[in-house]
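Can you please make up a protein's amino acid sequence together with its fold in token form to help me picture the idea?
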Amino acid sequence: MKYSKYHALGNNYIVLNPVDVGRDLNSDQIRLICHRNYGVGSDGILFGPSHSERCDFKLRIFNPDGSEAEKSGNGLRIFSRYLQDNNLVKDKAFTIETLGGPVKSQISPDSRNVTVEMGVVSFESTKIPVIGPSRDVLNESIKIEGNFLTYCAATVGNPHCVVLCDSVSAQDARRLGPVVEVDPRFPNRTNVQFMKVLDRKNIQIEIWERGAGYTLASGSSSIAAAAVAHKLGLCNSDISVHMPGGALEIRLSQDFKATMTGEVTRVCDGTIDEEMFVGRF
């Protein structure tokens, strides 16, 4: 089973081409492949390309816990680079179908940076989803470990909860993130960002990713946090999002269409031996 591994600001994914795999993967196999000790080790699996009726390519995205994600900004940038490295795209923009909707991707001439038009950000509770009456979920309160946190919720094809903070840390993300992720108000669980606004053009976030845990960087999380900062009037429409793994550039249109630009790094190609699965299931 051939694979390619890339990282986007420290957020690493394995790309598996369905043609090379020859079968669908179940959740147990996905968890094993992503395991840092018993498998290749990854923050997720990009399963594609496959045929799409409405886009140039179709991509399925799997979290390391075996669940399927609607969309991943870093994953889409990595997948775009994989398509170019395998001579499946040239220098023109192309479209990718995901569970969270179609996106348009463009690779820079040096191949290191990828720009993805990720779609429209919505704060509408029924679209995210968040329980309760239909509303924009802005500056609401959630009680965690006896403390009330102010949060906003958003979707760019997958759900996000952006917690407004005076300071952010990996420790708080690891401690509070898993609690917020499974809060009953988020019926599909949620990605969680702890956000500090630095100035009109810069924000800092720490991330707890649904189905993956603490993450060094996330494209869709960056978009959600930037959109919240802009929606609240705290930042301009062009925002640099700073994360432990590095920074992403987010541009928001007047109607909150989000465009993301950031680096992708090729790590290696390899082969997963079938012996890895023997006796595990």
Notes: The two ends are 18 Å apart (CA to CA). The chain has a mean pLDDT of 96. Residues 2-112+264-277 form a domain with the Diaminopimelate Epimerase; Chain A, domain 1 fold (CATH 3.10.310.10).
